[in-house]
Write a structure and sequence with these properties.
The chain is 44% helix and 17% strand. It is an alpha+beta fold. Strands 2-1-4-3 form a 4-stranded antiparallel β-sheet. The radius of gyration is 14 Å and the shape is globular.
């Protein structure tokens, strides 16, 4: 297995990224529109990037409660699909990246699991799910990766969004 390359936003360790940096990332990574074709192109880009890195991940894109894209690469397991669902629910509930939600709790000196009062079997504020935000509309869905450590799951999604949106 080859080493995972860090993304251009330098999110490499849970301790070296701030809530403010994650919030800025979300402000930048906004779509003008998001169609079924966009889901296919973004999902396909994520799969290509993961294959280049031999990353054993599952990739999922949901919009308005509908799954528009899903792929499981070699090494991914059904457990990755369960993680995807839990991380996606955090995006749907909080309107923010699952990694950012967890970071906000950590910044307050607590954890999502201890303070959210949500069932950890249903919600996971771990990196890898990023909101699909459309300018003038808001959060309409989520793109999620599972299979790597949470920082790398988040970084892979963020890098793909950077490339897709041409930032």
């Amino acid at each position: 297995m080859t080493a995972h390359r860090p993304d251009p936003t330098k999110v490499t360790d849970a301790t070296d990224v701030t809530v403010e940096e994650l919030e800025e990332q979300e402000r930048r990574l906004v779509f003008g529109r998001f169609t079924h074709d966009d889901a296919w192109e973004l999902g396909s880009l994520l799969v290509r990037m993961a294959r280049e890195r031999q990353a054993p991940v599952a990739v999922d894109i949901h919009r308005a409660g509908q799954q528009l894209f899903h792929a499981a690469l070699p090494g991914a397991t059904p457990d990755n699909d369960a993680w995807i669902a839990r991380k996606r629910r955090v995006v749907e509930r909080y309107g923010a990246a699952s990694y950012l939600v967890g970071a906000r709790f950590r910044a307050k000196g607590t954890t999502f699991e201890d303070s959210s009062r949500l069932d950890p079997d249903v919600y996971a504020a771990h990196g890898g799910a990023f909101p699909i935000t459309v300018k003038g509309v808001g959060v309409i869905g989520a793109v999620t990766v599972s299979g790597l450590p949470q920082v790398q799951d988040h970084a892979l999604v963020a890098e793909a969004l950077e490339r897709f949106l041409g930032r």
